[in-house]
Specification:
By secondary structure, this protein is an alpha/beta fold. The strands form 4 sheets. The protein has a 6-stranded mixed sheet, sandwiched between helices. A 6-stranded mixed sheet has the order 14-15-16-12-17-18. A 3-stranded antiparallel sheet has the order 2-1-4. A hairpin with an 8-residue loop joins β10 and β11. It starts with 9 loop residues before the first helix and ends with a helix.
């Protein structure tokens, strides 16, 4: 059981503990030279479900670390009950040799503690202790733990046959799902989830929503998915200008309330500026006149006392469009009677008919591994058709976004150079203005991509697509790594896009605001879905019930047996593709481990107060510089590692589908 109390002062701290609330008072939090929070205030009551939002780097993850006791305030206080059990979604895996089910059960630390003591008591043949421990096991619901863990894994998309596989057999995205399941398995009073939907498909997100809605404790959730926030939370905390601002309601209610607040702030700012201008004009005119000098001096003092109201900063830093295609064809693309997959003996999709014309706006829905990525790869000719025809229009220009494309960016080139390579004859200022719409401005236009975050790389990839004047957009999870404002800007740009759009996304707001048709990819078919996302949620529930209730398949008649030899050959070919990806992922993981150890050593050094003495100024500067460089390198390597694991995950799921 996690027990700690992080800073308390006087009777107010004792009151917060007794009431079981989270109370932040006059909190200042700083990481290196960057001040994240200053004199921040926040009170959260038990049972509240709260979304934590703010710009990247604003301090959301640092606040989580503070609540977990991993960081300490630079000033002020952060209080929560000492007896609260805290669960959080980890970002690393430390038990790769354990089975998935055991790894998830490890999340229930109380259960594991009782089991360890039970094993020791059995070894010592201590009958009295055994009796007490069996009673504790009963109180801890130990006898239902395995069933509960398997239910969590099923909800997050794991097949029953995968649950006993070793953790290291899963790719990066699925390991993150295991970390999420472990956090949900932990009995807790406070649950901290940092971007839990990043590695989930829409099916798993819908399941997680239902689970969190029924969670009885206090929930703090960092997410860029507005529909997910609306469904789960009842309050929003906005990290803004080094403050924590609490709003009631979900994300949609927050947007309305903040807009009203900013309008009021803007009016107050404009009124104050008018007052200042009037007083400054009076001072200029009468400061030198003896009869008015005293009045002028009083206005100077009033100006000094006047609190400066900041103007409202409500406009998004993003403002872009997908440039209009020079020519179009109709249809742009026609897929007819196509069979798709890696093996003719066991295709993933059959009899696929899909025609894309200018103005078509389609989102693909379907269970994980059903073939959505296979369809897009086939359209892109990355995967040859097994049979059927794919006809492209004469003037087809495809803009294709997928996560693996972020790795194809030149790490040594700047955003400006990336665009200049595809537009060598365009004036530099035109290109800079264009990149400004994606929030690459000033020096950021000229910095190498190597130091960019995942979100910045995704924005640059979208910028390159937008410049290319596509008339067909194929977007596979384009909102991964994007913050809420960029997601909104992308939604607006897609609404104005006149070409055809084929979208795979777990962001329901993006789907609802940009597409007209839903297509279901499931059970080997691609067909139009006559319903909305709520209907899809119901269809998915029925589909899961059918999957669970389906009996083991009967033995096949000899005449209908699959050609096992061809199937094994196809699987062997795919395993050859997996080997270098696995090796790359393992190499990157070792690099991350080395960097983490170096960062821990630097943090230990920076925690030494003697380092901040005047004679060690250069040593401190050197440590901070090394820390900054390491953090940038870590972010880059981590991004490459995750993308490598996602590609590995896709190939593994397709391999399993063919076995």
């Amino acid at each position: 059981m996690t027990k700690y109390l992080l800073a308390h002062i006087g009777n107010r701290g004792e009151t917060a503990k007794l009431r079981g609330m989270i109370r932040i008072s006059e909190l200042t939090l700083q990481r290196g030279p960057l001040r994240l929070l200053e004199n921040a205030e926040l009170t959260l009551h038990p049972g509240h479900k709260v979304g934590l939002i703010g710009a990247n780097g604003a301090g959301k993850s640092s606040l989580f670390a503070l609540l977990r006791g991993k960081l300490h305030p630079d000033a002020g206080e952060c209080e929560l009950p000492a007896t609260w059990r805290i669960a959080h979604m980890r970002q690393e895996i430390d038990a790769p040799e354990r089975s998935a089910i055991d790894y998830v059960l490890d999340g229930d630390t109380l259960l594991r503690n009782i089991q360890q003591r039970l094993a020791k008591a059995e070894e010592q043949q201590d009958g009295a202790e055994l009796g007490r421990l069996h009673s504790e096991l009963d109180s801890a619901d130990a006898y239902t733990a395995d069933a509960r863990a398997r239910k969590l894994l099923a909800g997050l998309g794991f097949l029953e046959k995968q649950m006993d596989n070793q953790v290291n057999s899963f790719s990066g995205g699925w390991r993150m799902r295991l970390n999420l399941a472990q956090a949900l398995m932990c009995p807790s009073d406070l649950l901290l989830l940092d971007e839990p939907t990043n590695h989930l498909d829409l099916d798993a997100i819908l399941w997680l929503e239902g689970w969190l809605q029924n969670y009885p404790g206090t929930l703090l959730l960092i997410s860029h998915d507005r529909d997910f926030l609306d469904s789960v939370v009842g309050h929003i905390v906005h990290v803004e200008q080094q403050q924590l601002v609490l709003y009631s309601g979900g994300y949609t209610a927050f947007e309305r309330a903040r807009a009203e607040r900013i309008m009021q702030q803007q009016k107050a700012h404009e009124k104050q500026q008018a007052q200042r201008a009037h007083m400054e004009d009076f001072i200029r005119r009468f400061k030198a006149k003896a009869t008015k000098a005293r009045q002028a001096q009083s206005r100077i003092k009033a100006l000094e006392r006047m609190e400066e109201l900041a103007p409202a900063h409500f406009d998004s830093p993003f403002n872009f469009i997908f440039r209009e295609a020079d020519k179009v064809s109709s249809p742009l693309l026609d897929l007819n009677e196509a069979v798709l997959g890696y093996s003719a003996t066991q295709p993933i999709l059959s009899k696929v008919k899909l025609q894309l014309v200018p103005g078509a706006r389609i989102a693909l829905l379907g269970p994980n591994g059903a073939g959505k990525s296979t369809l897009i790869k086939s359209i892109m000719n990355d995967l040859p058709l097994l049979s059927g025809t794919l006809t492209s229009g004469e003037n087809l220009v495809v803009g294709y976004f997928a996560q693996h494309q972020l790795d194809s960016l030149d790490p040594k080139a700047s955003p400006l150079l990336h665009v200049q390579r595809i537009a060598p004859n365009e004036r530099e200022q035109v290109l800079r203005d264009f990149l400004g719409g994606f929030d690459f401005r000033g020096k950021r236009c000229d910095e190498p991509v190597v130091n960019f975050s995942g979100g910045e790389k995704a924005r640059l990839a979208l910028a390159l697509i937008a410049w290319g004047k596509p008339n067909l957009l194929l977007l596979d999870e384009p909102t991964n790594h994007l913050d809420l404002e960029m997601r909104q800007a992308l939604s607006m740009a897609l609404q104005d896009f006149s070409g055809a759009l084929l979208l795979v996304s777990h962001d329901r707001h993006l789907i609802k605001s940009t597409v007209d048709e839903l297509y279901l990819v499931a059970e080997g078919r691609v067909q139009e879905f006559a319903g909305d996302l709520e209907d899809y949620s119901k269809w998915l529930s029925d589909y899961r019930l059918r999957q669970q209730s389906a009996a083991a398949p009967p033995s096949e008649p000899a005449a209908d047996k699959v050609d096992r030899r061809a199937q094994r050959q196809a699987a062997a070919e795919m395993r050859k593709q997996l080997a270098p990806l696995r090796k790359q992922a393992e190499t990157l993981e070792k690099q991350l481990d080395r960097m983490q150890h170096e960062l821990l050593a630097l943090e230990t050094l920076l925690a030494d107060n003697s380092l901040y003495e005047q004679d060690k100024k250069e040593q401190l500067k050197d440590c901070l510089s090394k820390q900054s460089q390491l953090l940038q390198q870590q972010a880059q390597v981590e991004e490459t590692w995750l993308n490598s694991l996602e590609e590995l995950e896709l190939l593994q799921s397709e391999l399993e589908a063919n076995v």
